Amino acid sequence: MTKSIFKCIECSKYTLNTEKCPSCGGRVVSPRPAKFSIEKEKKYSSYRRQLFKNDLNTS
What is the pLDDT of residues 26-46, one digit of tens each? Predict the structure, then answer.
């Protein structure tokens, strides 16, 4: 069994607890970035380009 490390959003401490931070009781998340998949990249590329275009128009 492998254990994953988690990071508290509120106090930025690392823990093995998956539910809440033992120090402050805050929510914990995985500090790892999401896996990159070229198939999903192609699937959502039109949405990303549209969002980028809208951001340029509002600036």
Answer: 999 888 877 777 777 777 788
Handedness of CA 13, 8, 51, 57 (dihedral sign): negative
Residue 8 near residue 21 (C-beta atoms within 8 A)? yes
Q: Can you tell me the distance from the alpha carbon of 20 to that of 6, in angstroms, rounded to the nearest whole number?
A: 9
Map out the domains of the chain with their CATH numbers.
1-31 (2.20.28)
pTM of the model: 0.52
How wide is the angle at C-alpha 11 spanned by C-alphas 17 and 21, nearest 5°? Answer: 20
The type of residue at 23 is S
